[in-house]
Structures are given as C-alpha cells and as structure tokens.
Amino acid sequence: MANQHIEFAGDFNLSSIVLHNHKNKGRVQDGDKQGVDIKHMVQEFNIYENMYKGAITGSLVIADATNLIGNLPIQGTERLTFKLSSPGMPAVDCSDKTGHPMYIYKLTDKQQASDGIQIYVLHFCSREFLRNLRTKVSKAYTGTLDQMVDSIMNDKELLDTRKNLFVQKTRNQDKIVVPYKRPFSAISMLCKRAMAENSKSVGYYFWETSKGFHFRSWESLCVNDNGLPRYPKQHFRYMPMNITDEENTGDKTLHDYTSVEEYKFVNNFHDVAANTALGTYGHRIITHNIYDKSYKIDDYHYHNSYNQTKHTEQNVPIVETPVDYDNNSISDYAESRVTVQPTTQFSHGEPTGAFGNDVELDGKSEGLRESLVNQTIAGTKLQMTVKGQSILEVGDVIYFDLLSVENRVNSGGAPDPQYSGRYIITKIRHRVTAEDYKMVLECSKDSVARPYSKAYTETFPGKEPITHNDTVDIKDRDNYYLNRAATTK
Question: Which of 27, 168, 387, 458 lies in disulfide reach of 216, CB 3.0 to 4.6 Å?
Fold first, then answer.
C-alpha cells in the first residue's frame, strides 16, 4: 500500500516500474512472472504533459547490467506500467488494473558506460499516441464540434480511447468533411473552428493529462461556468527560507512545496515587434466568398475586443496610448498583418461559413481567434522548478508570488505588478530520480496582475513635422564637413 505520510517535500510513491514484453512476460531472472521490474535500473524517469501536443510522452534513462535489450527482448512494442504519486495526492496512474499503461516506442543513446554496464534511453507514450499514427479519419461529421471530437476519440476504428474526455461544449455546429487526416490532425482542425458555448471565445486546445483528454478553450481554464476566476490549485513563491518564514508558515514541508527553486521567463508579452507581426494587436482579414464572388474586409482591434473574453486576470498588459506621430494606438494599425481567407456558404447545403455561423462573421471570428492564440503562446511565459506534486496537471491555475525588485523594506512586500499573479500550466515535466521528485512547470498568462494607469496624453510627444525650409542640401552638408575638417587641422 502506498505511503500517505509526507516525510519531506519531493517525497514520492513509486513501488515499481514494470516492463512487459510482446508476450506480456519478463525473462530476466524471474521465470514466467508477468513483466520485469526495472525500477532499480532507472537513473531518471520523466513524464511530459503538453497543452500544445495531443498525448503524454516520457523517457527512462536505464543503466543496464543484465542485457535487458536482448533478454526481454526490447523491440519497441513493450508496455510499461507504474503508479507515481506524492503521498496523499492523486496518482499518475499507468497501472494495468486502475490506470492505463504506457507503450515503449523507441530506444536511443545506447552507449557503454563501463565494463558490463550499458546506458540507454527508453521513450514511451500513451496508447492514443500510437493509435493516432496507425489510423486515418476520412469521414463527414454533422453536429456540434464537441460531438465530432467525442466521436473521433471513441471510434473503435480510430483512437478508441478508454480514458476520460473533458469537453467544453461548443455553440457552433456544421457539417465537416475530414479529408484522410490523422485523428489528432482532424481534432486540431476542429480546434481552430470551435466557439465556446455561452462565450465569445474562439479557438480550442486539445491535450492529454494523467487524468484524461481535454478539448477546451483558454477561457474555460481561466474562469468557471459562472464566469468567476478559477481557484488556484497551488500558490508558489520565490523566496529563500529564513527564520521569519518558518515562524509564519509553521511547517517547513509545506513551505518547501510552495517554494520555487529556480525560475526564468521564457518570453514575455512586451515583445511588441513579434506580437505586432503576428496580428495580436491589429489584423486585417479579407474574406473572399466563393459562393457569391464577393469579398469583405474586417479589422481586428485588440483593445476593443479584450474585454469580450475572459483572461487569467482582466488587466490589459499594454495600454491604448499613442505610439507614433499619427497618434494611433498599437491596435489601430490593422495592416500589421493582412490575411486573405476563402470562405463560402451552401458547401453542404447550409448558409454557414467556415465557423458554422453566419458567413459574414468569418473575418471577425478569425481575427479574434488568431489574437487569442498569440496572447497565449507569445504572452508572458514562466518556467519554474518546484517539488513534485502529482495533484497538478496541465490546465490548472497556479498563483506565482514574485516580490517587486525593491527590497522588502522599500516595497513593503508588494508583489511584482507585471509578473506575479495567476498563470495557467501549459507544460509539465515530472522528473523522478532516486533522491526526489521534482516538476518543471511552464506557465502562461495573457494579462498583468495590477492594471496600468489609464491617464495618458492624447497626442504623441515629439518634434513637429519637417517643412521644406528645414531641408538640407547635400552639397551644403558635404561642404560643412570639409570646412570643419580643414579648420581642425
């Protein structure tokens, strides 16, 4: 039975890591026993969850003195069973009886470490990862987009999943023909068209965690069904342990679980050049209606649309101030990105466009979708290392408490107004060694913790435009430098 008492932060339960060969047996010093426990050979154990990829993957660094490769043998079709958990927390359950086994698909980096010991890396994945590679979708679907995803996931000829599917219902429906795509690619196509029910949000994400598959919008990760902010699953802080902290927390283990060992910002929202080019702030979409041979121009404006959807926090990360002599804000340049997009109605006998709605709304929907994706991917992205906590999964809300750069006395313990606050976990690396269990989290946010001041000048400060009388003749300029050089000799 797993230990439910936490002895130290980073403590974990992992009784065995069992490898099953193609006959579901092991042949290394265990006769006909089902599988072989390789836990004692494992130097490092990694599990990866990623909101931008469809399935869980992982790796095992093996120090092998028994020639497991030849004796089991390992050929790339083996099953892997284990159950990893922090004491008292839900497990990453990949066991046969209560969970879903993983599957070996590759062996890399094999080398001789010393006489009689070889080191290599075994790569594993979920069953659906391989089903995605082995099957293709070539079918027409009718109904809401969440129903289509459910059909692809449960189809015995396709992914045939036996796991939970967490789905946010979509408000749009359509008839969609999937032209011989892999299941994950078909779902990715549906993600781009999905529009959340009871929301103006456009665009979904599809990913797998240890608890199942998710087909949801970014907005559903930020707020609950009532539109209220979701409660953070964990509150992390970057602060060294000292006597004062111990007195306040009263529990060193709890303190260590909430402490961040190290962190860095992979990128941040203030890369204005990148976000301008991506169309995050301004985007012109020209839709060409193939049915009636017309076209329509729609301009996306970031600041006008920001409050139409929910965010990690509702404070806009860049204010609407003039940024040039024309006194336009950063959202007023619609030609920062121009997209020409074909659309049509009646392709399946219905008067709907690419999103399953009124064809006239396709341009506005595409502009909003692109901006919401960019706000997530090109927004503030935090990577941090913390003690392993198997209760956390991709899609959870966490709070990151980062003190302002001033010292505690001068800042009064105030958090950083831009980089502290609520984040969504987008990637997790579970890293287990013989010593402890750690997690590397990558988290994103599309807002700031504290709003910026709204007071700003209505005009862009700077010089007046140059008039004809202010121009300088090239000859005069050359003579000036020649005369100046002669004078200094």
Answer: 168
